[in-house]
């Protein structure tokens, strides 16, 4: 999980951030002023300072923020001067924008703010649509406006030149003031909230920023994106009333609180209209008490009423942003905030501590309990929960040993001109929660002290109460943590009050003769000492010292808190804090708050030694053991009442029936589980259906189920159940649930049952085989020792596959437990060692090492056109043509309006856009041309081209959980890890990868303890690559994007990057696309699906001699550390249907026959990737029968094996 930040503001206006990997609040040292409120996103944090201006803190990243300014120089030709600046009166400006409507001379461009700087001077753009121009960047046309070309023609009467200049945002990791409005300035801002980054990914870094002014107006900041992080201007929104606070979620939820206590919801928010269209009013959670604060996430709304009660809004989603009703939750808070993944943070009204809502998941959005974040600040002088010196210092003060003047002896308050003499002191009573060290000797302090700096009130009315609040009666309760300190206008209590448990000692200014001040009080030290002397020698009693405390607040020092006092928070923002219910946080282990201090003080008074604690534990354990033995012996002669238990779960589902016509029918589904006396568990699946009014059933034993696969469908929440027999038929049991939640519940239950029946639990082993479906689901299988045995291996259709949470396109592993993956958006991920995630629940998922994973993939549709002599290319095709809007095959109609995301779990994050990165190239409008449908397309038009097509793309996003941690920032398309032997002693494991730009990279610092490695080493190439693999002997092979093969020479532990590339000729008339290297073998797959084996590989000649064809219809290949060969094959014929994307195992691979003999078909179809590079278990040695003995029958059916040739017999 990438490190992210939780932001908070204390009552003095200081801004702090807490890292998800840290244990200390780190103060923003850059802030030169106090802040009222902050609102955070992952890439930045916004804040309102005490000057009522808005500031931006943009986090530094590897990708700089650059903005391209452009203007066009326009000229017209005349017979006298040729091309000159003399334009016609009807022409555009000499210097204009691309439309020619705006006047844009070079000297009119100004930096938006002082946070920007120019990279260089203006320069001419000498490219037109990616092609270099001549004549100094001029492009020519017949007139304004028209189509411009790089070549001057006889009728070119006008020309233009594009001038560019870049500016860079330099104010990284610092608070930069947002420039004020150029026209009418809004009244000062009082609240701010950012969000909306999940509405659309285009433009990149887009944010919605909403602000509330003191007059109750709401403003929206236009134009915030990656290249313009400050935005452009403020736009006022129409309102049904005056607003006091607003909250914007990551998606399309925006709620606000009105002055009267009602709530309003913004409706009509979409990618095209991020500001929304209208407001809808929602009543306050309590009819008698109005709402005071609201916080929204993706699918949640939390609110606080004016009596500090916490409320949760149920039924909130994108289709119903107003929700359906309120639920009262436990706790009293003054502020609440919803962060990423709908996690909730709040500030308690009792102790002003930041609390985190635990147990918030997608299925239980309201969470379970509040837990205080108890980490120290980086400015604390001591992070320990208690110290002897602090106790002694407090005791010395009570004994009257502080006889010297304090550092504020000469302080005079503006409101207390007639107060006491120069030896005045400021003494405030605090509760045990606010225990602060007091100095034992101040004799060395100077008499003259600087003028005190009164802490500035930085926020709203409830913040104003934080220093001056503390009404009488809010005293600490007995034996527990109490509220804030109390300053009372009454004499110092007597001894009987001092001895009371957890009582606070209140000192008053009334005794000194000065006027009462509810916030700060000057007290004569001698009088205070005299009063304290009457209470007795408090320091002589450890019990009294642990129950009562007093602190001196010196107004001259910078730190307003004492060494052991927890800070008082005013605001918190989790919009940039990426945590979820599985995150392992170190925020709750540091006992530095005041309540833990009191507990540790009281525990010190008991003087319990570790030896005594150990003795007690041993004694308790012995007593429990004796009791258990005694009770078991008394009932041992009874017979066992129940020998086995049976548990049944039933439900209604739909089943894709086996016979024609195939369709979905309603069935009753039941899972019957039973456990025997020895604790072994098994079960049976029953599907009850009607066949011509006759009730029938279908069943499958749990211990025969080999895999449970979620099936991607836009209309059904379905999954498939495979058994060995169903795998041979290529026809699984396909079931559909009514809702996605119900499907996930069944999948979780069935997965746990299957694992229990096979005795599988915990994380995958180091030898496990990993595979990925074409939908991105990840599966892992524990190989048996006889999987690669000769001559009778375990059939691979009997392998059991269990799902691992996450969503990836490629997974690679090795036998020391290092597993990497690549998502569809080319993000690299490393396996954390956990298991479960996704739909897995309870014992089926580890409680730690599970993180949120986001993947983005593009959905493509094709626009097809045919040429006719009258109108040229149009969308009117022949009756036999494909659909004018279709998929790649042309068989299915796919339009922009009816095309849906891959499944209900995916959401659109962009609009449809032309895709120019199509194989074969495109013209400037994205079209590809061909003679007819379907054919080979090219990017330029010829006289024989009568049809054309162009591809449209739209991005969709999936958010899930799994045992994967992101490795930023380089995007990858392929990765390979050294396939170590079973007893390998390699310290640093070589790992190679290819970036999405085709660069070859070598990862440094990869070990079993740090599988993510430390840094990338770039390996030079002459052209971009697309596939790479490293063998067990550090032999590195790669495939370039043009389909040629390369071998990297001299790769060794001493030289991990090698020295040079050697070109290997490809098979005749074939372009290779993927390579996999085993221990001594090299296999490749070409773009036509042919599998090739490299012959002639020797240690002295590692490049080999020639390619030998093994099979066709192959999609991917994986060669393991034992030279085992597994592939993903297409067009595998079963008894029921033909499947594409099937896992196949090469049989008969041995040193004398390295190419193997035949194929064994496993799970499929729908698989896209497999890796067996972690399976280094040597197969058991089997004694072959005598040559004269009759041969045993083959364990494989005839349809599942074939001689060397096609993988599918075609």
From TrEMBL:
<dbReference type="InterPro" id="IPR006614">
    <property type="entry name" value="Peroxin/Ferlin"/>
</dbReference>
<dbReference type="InterPro" id="IPR051513">
    <property type="entry name" value="Tectonin_beta-prop"/>
</dbReference>
<keyword id="KW-0072">Autophagy</keyword>
<protein>
    <recommendedName>
        <fullName>Tectonin beta-propeller repeat-containing protein 1</fullName>
    </recommendedName>
</protein>
<dbReference type="Pfam" id="PF19193">
    <property type="entry name" value="Tectonin"/>
</dbReference>
<feature type="domain" description="Peroxin/Ferlin">
    <location>
        <begin position="854"/>
        <end position="915"/>
    </location>
</feature>
<feature type="region of interest" description="Disordered">
    <location>
        <begin position="436"/>
        <end position="489"/>
    </location>
</feature>
<keyword id="KW-0472">Membrane</keyword>
<dbReference type="InterPro" id="IPR006624">
    <property type="entry name" value="Beta-propeller_rpt_TECPR"/>
</dbReference>
<keyword id="KW-0968">Cytoplasmic vesicle</keyword>
<dbReference type="Pfam" id="PF06462">
    <property type="entry name" value="Hyd_WA"/>
</dbReference>
<dbReference type="InterPro" id="IPR001849">
    <property type="entry name" value="PH_domain"/>
</dbReference>
<comment type="similarity">
    <text>Belongs to the TECPR1 family.</text>
</comment>
<dbReference type="Pfam" id="PF06398">
    <property type="entry name" value="Pex24p"/>
</dbReference>
<feature type="domain" description="Peroxin/Ferlin">
    <location>
        <begin position="64"/>
        <end position="125"/>
    </location>
</feature>
<dbReference type="InterPro" id="IPR010482">
    <property type="entry name" value="TECPR1-like_DysF"/>
</dbReference>
<feature type="domain" description="Peroxin/Ferlin">
    <location>
        <begin position="137"/>
        <end position="170"/>
    </location>
</feature>
<keyword id="KW-0458">Lysosome</keyword>
<dbReference type="GO" id="GO:0008289">
    <property type="term" value="F:lipid binding"/>
</dbReference>
<dbReference type="GO" id="GO:0000421">
    <property type="term" value="C:autophagosome membrane"/>
</dbReference>
<dbReference type="GO" id="GO:0005765">
    <property type="term" value="C:lysosomal membrane"/>
</dbReference>
<keyword id="KW-0677">Repeat</keyword>
<dbReference type="GO" id="GO:0006914">
    <property type="term" value="P:autophagy"/>
</dbReference>
<keyword id="KW-0446">Lipid-binding</keyword>
<dbReference type="GO" id="GO:0031410">
    <property type="term" value="C:cytoplasmic vesicle"/>
</dbReference>
<feature type="domain" description="PH">
    <location>
        <begin position="647"/>
        <end position="757"/>
    </location>
</feature>
<feature type="domain" description="Peroxin/Ferlin">
    <location>
        <begin position="926"/>
        <end position="959"/>
    </location>
</feature>
<feature type="region of interest" description="Disordered">
    <location>
        <begin position="1176"/>
        <end position="1210"/>
    </location>
</feature>
